[in-house]
Structure formats: structure tokens, C-alpha cells
Amino acid sequence: MTDIAQRNGVFHFEDLHVGQRFSSGTHALDEAQIKSFARQFDPQPFHVDDDQARDTLFGGLAASGWHTAAITMRLMVGGVPLAGGIIGAGGEINWPKPTRPGDVLHVESEIVEITPSRSRPDRGMVTVRSETLNQRGETVQVLTAKLIVPRRAEA
Known about the structure:
Elements: H1 3-8, E1 21-28, H2 31-41, H3 45-48, H4 50-54, H5 65-79, E2 87-94, E3 104-116, E4 123-133, E5 139-150
Antiparallel strand pairs: 1-3, 2-5, 3-4, 4-5
């Protein structure tokens, strides 16, 4: 981390490098959260009904992938301190395992590519690969996101 980044607590484009890693805090997920999110945004039986969920390919209640993605975003906001915030410009998302009631999630992120903008010298594109893991170290989501990161303003 550069001295300026340490003082401000945020990273500008110039402060980042390929291989740089960030870790988030944690979020404990319970059945009530899973059902509440699902009732509002993804009301499928395997997200809202224990009995019906047992008869699905999940074999029990599972959080919506979009709920896992929302938790991931919240954890990244606290764990990847980018100047200007986390501003997405596309990406890819996978859910290799379901998120379950009782899971405690955290996110491990790594910078995998850095590209200065040719047309906008005030910013660059940073590709970040983030794994959302449960308390057993199992990956429940992989997000590879292209983020717009501002350069430090010239003095």
C-alpha cells in the first residue's frame, strides 16, 4: 500500500497492482434473511419453503444466488476500499455451491488485470476476481468484475 493510500484509506488506480489481495469482514446468514430476501426478489420454493426445498436439486433451503451476490457486494464495499466506490462495468458470476442458513460468508478478492483508459486519462479499468467463501472455506460464489477506478487528481 502506498503512503497516500494508507493516509486516505482508499486506493486509486495508481495504488493497485496485479496480485494485490483484499479480505472482507463477515456476514452471518440465517433462515429468516434467506426467506425474506427470496419472498421479495426471488420467490422460488427452494428459497422460501423448507419442505418443498428438500425435494429440489438443492436438497434443502438455499439462498438465492442474487442474495449471495448482494451480500458479496456489501462485504466488498467494506473490504475493497476503492476511491470513488466500487463501480462495475461488467463481469461474470458463478455459484458453485449453494449458500445455506447458518453460513458465515466472507470475500477474498484479487486484482487480476489493470488497464489504463486510453480515452479517459482520469481513470482505468481494474479486473477483480472475488471468491465468496463460507465458514468451511467452501466457495459459494465467484465474481470476476471489471471496475472503473479513478486516478489520483494531479496537484
